[in-house]
Amino acid sequence: MRRLVLFMHVSLDGFVTDPNGGMGFIKVDEEIFDYVGDRTNLADMALYGRVTYEMMDAYWPTAPDKPNATKHEKEHGAWYNKVDKVVLSKTMKGQQRPNTIIISEDVEHRIKSLKQQAGSEILIFGSPSAAHSLMQYGLIDEFWLFVNPVLVGGGTPLFNNTQLPAELKLVKSKSFSNGVVCLGYEKA
């Protein structure tokens, strides 16, 4: 049985984008890439909303092949190319993509079915709209929040009014030298 794990950067005041929809406040570096990479390597499936999927799919399949590819690009690109991907999207309905499942309807039951299959973890990277849909049905088992030391004052909130009440238990925390703190929670 797979666990559904959300990886999300968030501002200290709880937003995943700034008021203009930007994410320039997010701090990432090799230390964070290595930390995330250790966890990513345990997962056998990735889940995205359409916008994040299109961004990822435009970059990661060829990133490891670049002559000046970084360690992170080589490792994450190799992982991206081997794992199955799930995309929550109404506009991509009926499209066929390699190693990719498009879910356009019946999200709750289709994701529950994927979680029941043999495997390790399904990771959600970013994708706030997809995360909101999954939270609405109580499908996320773990929240790995990378809290960036900035107040953006508005934008897309990580949590909105659609999720069910859930008590969480802190299972891991990690401070990074750039000021970001990762808080790992699972359902209590």
Mean pLDDT: 93
Structural class: alpha/beta
Q: How many E-type strands?
A: 8
The ordered H/E elements are EHEHHEEHEHEEE
Tally of helical segments: 5
- What's the story with the biggest beta sheet? 8 strands, mixed
Provide the low-confidence segments as ranges: none
Strand composition percent: 25-35%
Any idea what the shape is?
Answer: globular
Spatially, the strands of the biggest sheet line up as: 4-3-2-5-1-6-8-7
> Percent range for helical residues?
25-40%
C-alpha Rg, in Å? 16 Å
Q: Between the first and last Cα atoms, what is the distance in angstroms? A: 18 Å
What does this molecule look like?
This protein has five helices and eight strands, in the order E-H-E-H-H-E-E-H-E-H-E-E-E. The protein has 188 residues and is an alpha/beta fold. It has a domain at 25-120. Strands 4-3-2-5-1-6-8-7 form an eight-stranded mixed β-sheet, sandwiched between helices. Strand 7 (168-175) and strand 8 (181-187) form a beta hairpin. Helix 1 (30-40) packs parallel to helix 3 (71-82). The longest helix is centred in the middle third of the chain and has 12 residues, at 71-82. The radius of gyration is 16 Å and the shape is globular. The model has no long low-confidence stretch (mean pLDDT 93).
